[in-house]
Each structure stands twice: as structure tokens, then as C-alpha cells.
Design a protein that fits this description.
This protein is of the alpha+beta class and 231 residues long. It has helices at residues 2-32, 51-72, 78-87, 89-102, 203-230, and strands at residues 40-45, 109-118, 121-123, 126-128, 131-140, 147-153, 158-160, 165-167, 191-192. It is elongated. Residues 172-210 are annotated as: Disordered.
């Protein structure tokens, strides 16, 4: 009679532990959340796919994003962010012009703040359908090269200037494109998918390590309890 009761107790504890970690994972995922519908995006189109033009695109990206992030990081609403960005358009143009001149690149460019067409996008683990979204679009030269994009407001772009690549902090993600992406099926805004992004973000290896540690803890715990009963 003792062993069946202990087995039932073991099963109850097992279910409780599994439920706890499932609830923790769900809460953690909810904290990240999808991109807000009224977010303001930044999109930079390179002149071409040549190494030189792609390098210039990243230099412009770094300069523009650094300025705008500083201006909008304390704002509360999208309307406020639009107003601030619009008021700084002359400065944004000067920043781009100076960056292009410093890189000895083609000085032709266009900047527009407003509704822009976006194809279906992957952002972290979420799919966003093609459509018109508020964006600051910077077109360098002919704008035929691979483009880069992220979310300006709320500020979800974080730059690692040591390698000139966009990275995501624990509360946000940024997507670097090597070519325009599309999805086979149209998804609702913010639909989460199980597919992982091609480029692993810094926090993903840590998350995998956490899973291994939790699994090891649970296995060790129940192994010890079982041996104490059987022994």
C-alpha cells in the first residue's frame, strides 16, 4: 500500500513541477510580446548588394538609429515619436549626407516618413503580414540592394558597434536581412510560429542551457526519490 501511495505522490509532484515551468515559460514569452500595430519602423535600402554598398548601408543605419533612439527613448506614444522624428528630419538628412561623404559613397539618397509597403516579415518568433506600416525609409542610391529594418518606436533596435551588427537585448529583437524575406502563407499580425530565425540571437544559447539545467534537476530529484522508495 505504501508504494502505490508514494507513486501517486511522485506523479502529483511531477505534474506540479511541469506545470510550474510551463507557466514560467508562457509568462516569459508574454513579456517579450509582438511588435505593436502602431510601431514606427526603420528601413534602409542599400544601393546594391556589393560589399561596399552594404557596408555603407550599415554605417548609415548606425548613425541614423543612434540619433533617433536618443530622441524617442523617453517618449510614451507613437504620435509623440512621429512628431519628434518629423521635427528632426533636417538633422537626419545631414547625418546621412555626412556619413555618405565620409565613406566616399554615392551621395544620392531619399528619406521619407510615412506609410511604407512591407512584405511579410519574420521578427523574432512572430510573423507579420505584408501591408503598409509607419516607417522611416532611407533609400540609398538606386535602393536595389538588400535592406535592413527594425523597430524605431518603441525602441527595439540595439546596436553592437564593435561588429556593426544589429542585436537584440533580453527584452527585444532586431532583424538583419541579407535578402528580402517572404512567407508561404499569410499570417495575422503578430502570429507566433515555432520556426526559429536563421541567425541565432545572443539570448538563445542561454535559453537552451537553462532547459538542460532544469531537465537535469528534475531527473536527479525524481531519481533520488525513486531510489529511496525502492531501496
Amino acid at each position: 500500500m505504501k508504494k502505490p501511495l508514494m507513486l501517486m505522490l511522485l506523479l502529483s509532484i511531477n505534474l506540479a513541477v511541469v506545470f510550474f515551468f510551463w507557466q514560467y515559460s508562457t509568462t516569459k514569452a508574454d513579456q517579450k510580446g509582438p511588435i505593436p500595430q502602431d510601431a514606427i519602423r526603420l528601413r534602409i535600402l542599400a544601393n546594391s548588394d556589393s560589399l561596399a554598398d552594404q557596408t555603407v548601408k550599415r554605417q548609415v543605419r548606425d548613425a541614423v538609429n543612434a540619433n533617433i533612439t536618443r530622441w524617442v527613448q523617453r517618449l510614451k506614444t507613437t504620435d509623440q515619436a512621429k512628431q519628434v522624428i518629423r521635427s528632426h528630419m533636417p538633422e537626419i538628412r545631414r547625418t546621412i549626407d555626412q556619413t555618405l561623404r565620409k565613406a566616399h559613397a554615392d551621395s544620392a539618397f531619399k528619406v521619407k516618413l510615412g506609410k511604407a509597403d512591407f512584405p511579410t516579415k519574420m521578427y523574432g518568433n512572430f510573423v507579420y503580414p505584408a501591408g503598409k506600416y509607419d516607417a522611416l525609409v532611407v533609400t540609398l542610391g538606386d535602393g536595389r540592394g538588400a535592406n535592413w529594418w527594425c523597430v524605431l518606436f518603441p525602441p527595439l533596435c540595439f546596436l553592437d558597434f564593435s561588429n556593426s551588427e544589429a542585436v537584440a537585448n533580453p527584452n527585444a529583437a532586431a532583424k538583419t536581412e541579407t535578402a528580402p524575406q517572404s512567407a508561404e502563407k499569410t499570417a495575422d499580425t503578430g502570429t507566433q510560429v515555432n520556426q526559429q530565425p536563421k541567425q541565432e540571437t545572443p539570448e538563445q544559447p542561454a535559453a537552451k542551457a537553462d532547459k538542460v539545467e532544469v531537465h537535469s534537476f528534475i531527473a536527479d530529484f525524481f531519481s533520488k526519490v525513486w531510489h529511496s522508495i525502492a531501496g
